[in-house]
């Protein structure tokens, strides 16, 4: 819970959890392109894999990424998560 420093009563301020926030408008096109390349390479190397990832965690600076198969990825501060829906929309 976050408290306001402006009032002496320390009333709580409502903060929206990051799980419900949508960052698609803030996504760098180069990150999206790198995520698509990582996704494409994975399926070229592993065509027999049946489990679909939920997205890719990608480093904002090096563009290195990992496919994420769990529901709630834990990201490092310099990483962002790109959902599979965004990745696949540009591959078709």
In short:
With 92 residues, the protein is an alpha+beta fold.
Label this structure with key terms:
single chain; 92 residues; alpha+beta; 5 strands
Average pLDDT number: 77
Provide the structure class. alpha+beta
| Total beta strands | 5
**Major sheet: arrangement of strands:** 4-3-5
The helix/strand order is EEHEEEH
Oligomer class: single chain
Helix content: 25-40%
* First-last Cα distance: 43 Å
Main β-sheet description: 3 strands, antiparallel
Radius of gyration: 17 Å
What characteristic shape results from the CA principal axes?
globular
How many DSSP H or I helices? 2
Strand content: 15-25%
The total number of structural domains is 1
Low-confidence runs:
1-25
Summarize the topology.
Blueprint: E1 2-3, E2 12-13, H1 29-45, E3 55-59, E4 65-68, E5 79-83, H2 84-89
Tell me what you see in this structure:
The chain contains two helices and five strands. It is α+β, with helices and mostly antiparallel strands and 92 residues long. It has one domain. The strands form two sheets. It has a three-stranded antiparallel beta sheet. Strands 1-2 form a two-stranded antiparallel ribbon. The longest helix is centred in the middle third of the chain and has 17 residues. It is globular and about 30 Å long. 11% of the residues are buried. The N terminus is likely disordered.
């Amino acid at each position: 819970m976050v408290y306001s420093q402006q009032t002496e009563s320390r009333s709580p301020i409502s903060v929206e959890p990051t799980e419900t926030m949508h960052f698609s408008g803030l996504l760098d096109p180069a990150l999206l392109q790198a995520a698509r390349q990582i996704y494409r390479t994975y399926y070229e190397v592993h065509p027999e894999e049946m489990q679909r990832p939920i997205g890719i965690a990608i480093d904002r600076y090096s563009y290195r990424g990992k496919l994420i198969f769990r529901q709630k990825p834990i990201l490092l501060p310099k990483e962002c998560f790109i959902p599979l829906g965004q990745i696949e929309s540009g591959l078709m």
